[in-house]
Amino acid sequence: MDVAPRAGGPQTQSTGQRIAEGFRFVWRTVPIRALLVLLGVVSVTGMPYAVLMPVFSDRILHGGARGLGLLMSASGCGALVGALLLASRKGVRGLATWAAMAAGGFGACLVLFSLSRSFWLSFLILIPAGFSMIIQMASSNTLVQTLVPDELRGRVMSVYSMMFLGMAPFGSLFAGILAQHIGAPATVSIGGVVCMIAAALFAWHLPSLRAKAEI
Fold first, then answer.
1. Alpha carbon separation from 215 to 13, 34, 41, 82, 146 (Å, rounded)
2. Among the four residues 9, 61, 81, 140, which has the most C-beta atoms within 10 Å?
3. Which residues contact 21 (CB under 8 A, 6 or more apart)?
4. How far is the C-alpha of 175 from the C-alpha of 89, rounded, in Å?
5. What is the pLDDT along the chain (215 residues), one digit of tens a residue?
6. Alpha-carbon Rg of the chain, whole angstroms?
7. Secondary structure of the chain: what % helix, strand, coil (to 5)?
């Protein structure tokens, strides 16, 4: 990478001030804020399906350890196809629509997966689930990096990482507690419904978001 020297004098802000500046930028920039909120909702409510997968494989689909490996590989194969599809794109215009549709599709796949009692049907459902998941995550990542000024990119991407990776453990904790009371299928189904609602709300506001940024 040929990185040009940064303009301006030495940094006078403290680390805390620079972090706060990144959070302020995210809050003020409505398209980025909307993308990160959608990402956080999917991370908290949708992604915990993975930590409940052993329960599905063992107790519901009766696939055992071998079945768990197959189910996880199905999601991974779908994610690989989604990543390759995104890599073939030449621009970012329209990616917000992809993110909204992918979040809704991911939620729908989770609901279908929670209702399935056939191992191979569940295997097939997890392929588009993984595909939708990576499309939503990577589209959001690409859009955020495109919209952020160079001098704030590191700080804003740390907020992205917090919403994506930092929120997931809390979602897993809540999913485990909920699954203990209402069961893993109902927990995954509720998470899928929440993902679909969040995607619908994001899509509803998409025209106004496009008026503020080319997404």
1. 32, 12, 20, 19, 9
2. 140
3. 13, 152, 155
4. 35
5. 565 666 555 566 777 888 888 888 999 999 999 999 999 999 999 999 999 999 999 999 999 999 999 999 999 999 999 999 998 888 888 899 999 999 999 999 999 999 999 999 999 999 999 999 999 999 999 999 988 888 888 889 999 998 888 888 999 999 999 999 999 999 999 999 999 999 999 999 999 888 777 77
6. 19
7. 80, 0, 20
Q: How far is CA 79 from the centre of its chain?
A: 12
* CA neighbor of 34 nearest in space, from 147, 168, 175: 147
Phi and psi based region of residue 11 (left: phi greater than 0; alpha: psi -120 to 50; beta: remaining):
beta
Q: 134 with 83: CB under 8 angstroms?
A: yes
Domains of the chain: 38-212 (1.20.1250.20)
Looking at residue 194, its amino acid is: V
3-class DSSP state for residue 91?
Answer: coil
* Helical residues (DSSP H) of 88-212, grouped into ranges: 95-115, 119-147, 153-161, 168-182, 184-204, 206-212
In the DSSP assignment, the letter for residue 5 is P
